[in-house]
Specification:
about 280 residues; 5-stranded antiparallel beta sheet; two-stranded antiparallel sheet
Length: about 280
């Protein structure tokens, strides 16, 4: 029965879109380590490939948990450091930019961990993945450090207080947006220049996604569809509109739209709009 349960968990993870899964026994329960991979967009694309993929992973995780629940098996987010778990088991290697690399997937992955209330048997760790053996890893070439617009990466690793993506979680700073923002919701520059990702190639945002992130649409405050694509948890309080103002200021020709943002109900949007209006 326990062997069947192990196979069931791994097959279920694959069914829900996870490219890799490892089941680890934890007492009478199971730690399910899951990997979601994605292909980046070309450098210079403002639509964030990472956040689109992260939201898809989140929805897949919820549907996986629900299917387990329907089978009488409880599951919840694992209370553990996922990076540490993956590194300790040789599934990933640490990178200077604070991310982890996974052989042919590079750093373009989203990690997920579930604590599943079932027993998979002996201590043997079993996975369902193609090419689990790591090939090389970060060699501290410093390409990411040189490219980082926030100056967050150095020889000893990353200073998260300077990372633009981390800053997107807080009140938006107009000067940061003006000088350093490269994509909506954060930054992917370090991954774009990493040699571990060069073989991945590029994807293109589909028409629906491009329509959702159309600049004038975001400037009017119509962010509903874009937020559904990237996730609502970190895109609220007008943040996408505030970021759109920064891009519009760089592009030029959006003065009236930026002026209209001064009437936004969101403080971030009004403050950023005023900054860029005065800057012009």
């Amino acid at each position: 029965m326990v062997g069947i349960m192990r196979s069931y968990l791994l097959d279920l993870a694959k069914k829900h879109g996870f490219c890799r899964a490892r089941a680890v026994r934890r007492g009478g329960s199971t730690l399910l380590l899951l990997t979601w991979s994605y292909i980046p967009f070309k450098r210079g694309e403002r639509i964030p490939a990472y956040y689109l993929a992260s939201n898809k992973m989140y929805q897949a995780k919820l549907s996986l948990i629900e299917e387990l629940r329907e089978q009488g098996i409880a599951a919840e987010d694992a209370d553990t450091s996922l990076k540490a778990e993956f590194i300790a088991r040789g599934l990933a290697s640490p990178c200077l930019n604070g991310l982890v690399a996974m052989d042919e997937l590079g750093t373009r992955t989203i990690l997920c961990g579930l604590s599943v209330n079932c027993d998979i048997g002996d201590e043997r760790e079993t996975d369902s993945q193609c090419g689990s053996k790591l090939n090389g890893g970060c060699d501290k070439c410093m390409a990411c450090a040189k490219a980082c617009p926030g100056g967050a990466i150095g020889p000893d690793g990353i200073d998260y207080s300077k990372c633009i993506r981390a800053g997107m979680n807080d009140t938006l700073h107009p000067i940061t947006l003006a000088n350093k923002l490269t994509t909506y919701m954060g930054c992917e520059v370090c991954q774009a220049v990493c040699h571990l990702n060069l073989h991945l190639g590029f994807a293109e945002p589909d028409e629906k996604t491009r329509e959702a992130f159309e600049l004038r649409r975001l400037l009017t405050g119509d962010t509903k569809e874009a937020r559904l694509l990237v996730g609502k948890n970190k895109s609220g309080s007008g943040k996408l509109t505030a970021q759109a103002i920064a891009f519009a200021s760089r592009d030029g020709g959006y003065e009236s739209e930026i002026e209209g943002c001064l009437e936004s109900p969101f403080e971030d949007v009004r403050r950023v709009a005023e900054f860029f209006r005065n800057k012009a």
